[in-house]
Amino acid sequence: MAVSTLRQDGWPQTTIVGYANEGLTLYFLIFRSSQKLANIRNDRRVSFAIGGDASDLRHATAVYAAAHAVEITDAKERAHGWEVLVSRHPNLEDFNLPDRSRAAMIKAECKHMSVVDYRKGLGT
């Protein structure tokens, strides 16, 4: 998933992160030293783009969302976010939730969403 945050100078910054969702709530981990975390602390508004590269344009699908993101600090809620991530990414099963001093668990609640589904016709 591509996540865009706003830098302090107002310019957008987009990076790729692994994520998992529970309904319209998305979870992802970022290093505490990352620019993304600094950006989210400065302005909670983020945007996401989730999609793949369809071999045929008529099969392209994507989701675009705007959300408010916050760092999860509650230990139980962090553990829940990790469980959601592991359920979507089984390759994480052999790992433990990274220590809070190294990585921030982010929860983003979607506020606005658009879906592109060209299987229903181009431009829809």
From TrEMBL:
Keywords: Oxidoreductase. It holds the Pfam family PNPOx_N. It comes from the Bacteria. Residues 1-105 form the Pyridoxamine 5'-phosphate oxidase N-terminal domain. This is Pyridoxamine 5'-phosphate oxidase family protein.
